[in-house]
UniProtKB/TrEMBL annotation:
CDD domains: crotonase-like. It is an enzyme of class 4 (lyase). This is Enoyl-CoA hydratase. Its EC number is 4.2.1.17. Keywords: Lyase. SUPFAM superfamilies: ClpP/crotonase. Coiled coil: none annotated. Belongs to the enoyl-CoA hydratase/isomerase family. One of its GO terms (molecular function) is enoyl-CoA hydratase activity. The keyword Lyase applies. PROSITE patterns: ENOYL_COA_HYDRATASE (PS00166). Gene3D superfamilies: 2-enoyl-CoA Hydratase, Chain A, domain 1, Lyase 2-enoyl-coa Hydratase, Chain A, domain 2. It comes from Azoarcus sp. (strain BH72).
Length: 267
């Protein structure tokens, strides 16, 4: 399988069909630009078709797992219907392609994990976080609905009460707290993160692949049932990119100040 067309993602191969999917470039916190967002949607189809892959570990760089979308990407979505429509499709494809990828996905979450990158972290079949990792779904802080993945999977992982608490307030959650509330599979010390991910990946790669993949397929029917909820959340997120709240949220991020949102909503 040829992965040379990917410019923001790298496949690192280990023994027994274990690979690392590395996001971003060395020395930088991974952030999805226009090309990178599309690549993150497409890569799971290639991994699914790759006969030499059994288990994939998805990770960021040393500075963290993901910073979410770039300000350029967000700004272009505010201004352009074409960009919103494309990102809407890619956001759906990231989630559904991970659900439908037959190979087992393990995420190794370090540092910040924000926005669309957090979707990848939590949509993995097994999510391992450093205890000092920082998980942030910042959609409402930006001024748009929590789309990407949250409405589909957070209530299943940590319950509706915690999902509403953290998604409505855009709370930052440590890896240790994420494990406590069930948002991630396990939390480990930061210096043990990759060893833990590789240990689990190797155990999975040594297991019965048909049985593992069919188990994943069956369990993911819980997520497929929530598909209409997810589709609605992503559509409302894109609708939010046409309104005044996201313009203020984006300006606040650029100017490094608290946002002052309009006091009323039109519904």
């Amino acid at each position: 399988m040829d992965y040379s067309r990917y410019t923001s993602l790298e496949i690192v191969r280990h023994e027994r069909g274990v690979v690392e999917l590395v996001m971003g470039r060395d020395g930088k916190l991974p952030a999805a630009d226009h090309a990178g967002h599309g690549e993150l949607a497409d890569i799971w189809r290639d991994i699914d078709r790759d006969p030499d892959i059994s288990v994939v570990i998805v990770r960021g760089q040393a500075k963290g797992f993901s910073a979410g979308g770039t300000l350029e990407l967000v700004g272009d979505m505010v201004e352009s219907f074409e960009h919103r429509a494309r990102v809407w499709k890619e956001a759906r494809d990231i989630v559904y392609n991970m659900i439908n990828c037959s190979k087992i996905i393990v995420s190794a979450i370090n540092g910040p994990a924000v926005g669309g990158g957090l979707a990848v972290a939590l949509m993995a079949d097994i999510s391992i976080a450093a205890k000092n990792a920082r998980l942030i779904d910042g959609h409402t802080r930006l001024g748009v609905a929590a789309g990407d993945h949250a409405a589909m999977i957070w209530p299943l992982l940590c319950g509706m009460a915690k999902a509403k608490l953290h998604l409505l307030l855009s709370n930052e959650i440590s890896g240790e707290e994420a494990e406590r509330i069930g948002l991630v599979s396990m939390a480990v010390e930061a210096d043990a993160l990759m060893d833990s991910a590789l240990e689990i990946a190797n155990r999975l790669a040594a297991g019965p692949q048909s049985a593992l993949r069919w188990t994943k397929h069956s369990l993911n029917n819980w997520l497929r049932q929530a598909g209409p909820i997810f589709d609605n959340s992503v559509a409302l997120e894109m609708l939010g990119f046409t309104g005044p709240e996201v313009r203020e949220g984006l300006a606040a991020v650029r100017e490094r100040r608290p946002a002052v949102f309009p006091p009323n909503a039109p519904f």
